[in-house]
């Protein structure tokens, strides 16, 4: 990793400080856990029952906690965050300033992309802390509520996080491409929402697997749904990685080829 | 020695509209180089080309004796710039804005504070730049341009939208930077009076072509060569005949006669001839062309 990339990454990290995007990551990550905590406190009898289940961690915790995220908040959040991060330059008329710094265009492109991916990692970490609090807070507050007795599923938790993270990447890559290309704030978001809604509608369609924003949804509903009609044994995560690479490289190509960097 | 040299630079957008035609700039090191022209003349396009923001289509640009095309990053290490409106992050404070750029240049916090003092923003604290006045934003943008202690400063209309006080402040600041650090400054404007007190060299551009390039002294020589004499008499018709007999080219404008000043001797001879012919001279005055007139004449030709 070159020194120039590290410096540019640090500069970009400072730039996003206090921005709406950085707040969105924190608030968005705590939103669902907060709802779950409230819900578990209100319906405390169910909570006590659920916590004593031997499948609590895998079914009531890992799987259910991703429901809202996988279907709605993760795709929508990414569309918003990527738009807001690239909008920092557009809104402040700062592309020309950035492009007159002694940094290569490659460094600029990939450092901005890295910032967004790092913010996603940050989001996942905060979200997991939040989700753990959905167990810890009710356990501490509700009387007679025992801590789930079954062993904590570290491995399953990490695998599930990794899968959702990979499934997010095509959304990040395409939104990044669109936001870099279109200076308008609304257009990339509009296109993003359109693809997300299309993914949702096409969730039960056999070719829905080809829509790049559908993988978080498939991972939640049925990750192997497509294998019965496709002749090859690709997982949705492989599709996600292939789309990500294509979008990143295409985005990079059109950014480099743009003759007007002001 | 030239710090910037361009050779036959041509530029057009979308292969349709010719924006620049054969621009040959020669900017001496240590100068304050005014780049003057009306709106849409091609000033910003030229400056964007110098900064690599637009890709050069035809011609050559050398900065610090290096080709811009092959040494973009190396050259940009020694350039500070401000193109059109200020580029500052409105959600960050002045210090944070400088820190964002300073991280790229390895600038210390001391250097950032020094810049804040130079541009008069050291007392802004945590106030976000979005709440700054236009003048403060311009000064912050100038501070960003100065952060890497550049050898060359490229400023596109830096006083746009500023009040007269703000214009004077920026002018004094640039003079000091040039004097203390020896920084070469290219400053564009569409108003000559704004920069004529600041610059040592000047280029005038219109419709994408360079009309004049030289020192302020060169431009003043042009001024000396274009003084008109205004004459008002009781009988302009007879006066015109006498002037024609003396081979003085003249014309009558709004009941006054105008001819080009050649020498004091000739002017004196004209007066004598008019009086000897019984013509009463009510007014005789020299109409000096100021730099603004010369600029206007150049771009109207």
Biggest interface: A-B, 26 and 30 residues
Average pLDDT taken over every residue of chain B: 88
- Report the CATH C-level class of the largest domain in chain B: Alpha Beta
Side by side, the strands of the main sheet of chain B go: 7-8-9-4-10-11
Radius of gyration of chain B: 25 Å
The structural domain count of chain B equals: 2
C-alpha termini separation of chain A = 27 Å
Helix content of chain B: 25-40%
Q: What's the oligomerization state?
A: heterodimer
Tell me how many strands of chain B there are.
15
Could you give a short account of the major beta sheet of chain B?
6 strands, mixed
- Counting structural domains of chain A, the number is 1
According to CATH, what is the topology of the largest domain in chain B? Rossmann fold
| Cα end-to-end separation of chain B | 32 Å
Number of helices of chain A: 11
**Low confidence ranges of chain B:** none
Q: Catalogue the unreliable spans of chain A.
A: none
Which H/E pattern describes the elements of chain A?
HHHHHHHHHHH
Strand/helix succession of chain B? EEEEHEEHEHHHEHEHEEHEHEEHEH
